[in-house]
Specification:
Shape: globular
CATH class of the largest domain: Alpha Beta
Strand content: 25-35%
Number of domains: 3
Distance between the termini: 69 Å
Largest sheet: 7 strands, mixed
Number of strands: 19
CATH superfamily of the largest domain: Vaccinia Virus protein VP39
Strand order of the largest sheet: 15-14-13-16-17-19-18
CATH architecture of the largest domain: 3-Layer(aba) Sandwich
Radius of gyration: 23 Å
Number of helices: 11
Structural class: alpha/beta
Length: 395
């Protein structure tokens, strides 16, 4: 196995448990980055020759190497994949009764660049960079050996792949996989469009916060903004909400909402609105509509750190619109999946929204990603999800 040597003093983060090597940390005199190909397995060493672990290379990226075996010398092969998968599987089985969860969450499960979602007997995987794609075959073999799935679908159309100029493709790499896969979350059934839907077809990350809707929604009117196929809204209806309106810009997503409403026999309580969230919410206010619960789970408004100011303003504006549609005493659920937005900054945006909406808020609950999205304590980037439950004070 080739070596990658770091500059003197550049090993501090890795010795502290981080798994990423940045290109400016490499001693390029002794180990030039141009000598490596994406996916090359290397031993990472400090300037004094100490082994820091094994990584695979991404020589053209700012993060030029990703450790898959910290402190060890071993190949990235099927046996390592099986070992990591078994640890990840055991963690999920301790927590979830149903085999529906994120099985692999990248660095946090010791498999950087890999995402695998489980839908019962089916798996949907994403390989998010060129380096890990080189190990597709042993990974798929390990998935089949460990879980004996009926089918494995590889979604090769992620944003990160597009940004790297990698080929976009969606293909079955084992068995057979239907267009829609069933899943159950918090006792509610869904069909996820795993070929055409967002990401892997479903978002398991807000599962724990969605479960916390149960005491807040019985008999209430609910607006689910950026609803996708109804993860929040259909669960609200299943938990006893009187009326649920799901708002999304995608006609296909809203068809999924009504299909999932019918699946749970709550279609009589569910309606949809199609359109841009800000424009449609403004129109709803003009129509005089109000809701007892408003749920805002937007896409990441902040993709890069330099977009923090602009994105924070977007969070403030959408929550201001939500508050203006919320009845006094009602509940606002404000979500964010922007890694670069801290919880404190989200709170600040909510307070600014409340001032502009001429009301007061009190935070009554907070949520984060579930145990199938474990946070690596040395890698703050693995913690991205936030949910704030806040009551709009009456009067």
């Amino acid at each position: 196995m080739a070596e990658l040597v770091l500059r003197r003093g550049a090993d501090r983060r890795l010795r502290g448990g981080h798994l990423w090597v940045y290109s400016n940390e490499v001693d390029t005199d002794s180990t030039p980055l141009g000598h490596y190909q994406a996916g090359d397995a290397v031993q990472v060493r400090s300037a004094d020759g100490r082994i820091l672990g094994c990584a695979y290379m991404e020589p053209q990226s700012l993060i030029c190497a990703r450790l898959y075996a910290p402190g060890e010398q071993r190949p990235l092969d099927q046996s390592l994949f099986i070992e990591r998968l078994q640890v990840a599987l055991n963690l999920r089985q301790r927590v979830f009764d149903e085999p529906c969860y994120r099985l692999v969450y990248g660095d946090s499960d010791g498999l950087p660049g890999v995402v695998v979602d489980r839908f019962g007997d089916y798996l949907v995987a994403q390989l998010n960079n060129a380096g890990i794609e080189r190990y597709r075959d042993p990974l798929v073999a390990a998935l089949v050996t460990t879980l004996q799935p009926t089918g494995v679908l590889l979604r090769g159309d992620s944003r990160s792949r597009r940004q790297q100029g990698l080929a976009e493709q969606i293909e079955i790499v084992h068995g057979d996989v239907p267009e829609q896969l069933p899943l159950r979350e918090n006792g509610v059934d869904f069909l996820a469009p795993v070929y055409s839907g967002q990401k892997t077809g479903w978002f398991y990350d807000h599962r724990m916060s969605r479960a916390r809707l149960r005491p807040w929604v019985p008999g209430k009117s609910v607006l689910d903004v950026y609803s996708y196929i109804g993860g929040w809204g259909i669960q609200a209806a299943a938990f006893g909400a009187g009326k649920v309106c799901c708002l999304d810009s995608s006609a296909q997503a809203l068809e999924g909402v009504m299909a999932n409403a019918a699946l749970n026999k709550v279609a009589v309580h569910v309606t949809t609105r199609r359109g841009s969230a800000p424009e449609t919410m403004a129109a709803m206010r003009h129509e005089g509509l109000q809701f007892d619960v408003v749920i805002l789970d937007p896409p990441a408004f902040i993709q890069r750190k330099k977009d923090l100011k602009k994105g924070t303003t977007a969070y403030r504006r959408i929550n201001e619109l939500g508050l203006k549609l919320l009845t006094p005493g009602g509940l606002l659920v404000a979500g964010s999946c922007s890694m670069h937005l801290s919880r404190a900054e989200l709170m600040g945006a909510l307070q600014q929204a409340a001032v502009r909406a001429d009301c007061q808020l009190r935070v009554v609950e907070q949520g984060a990603q579930g145990p199938d999205h474990p946070v690596h304590p040395a890698i703050p980037e693995t913690e991205y999800l936030k949910a704030v439950f806040a009551v709009k004070l009456p009067g």
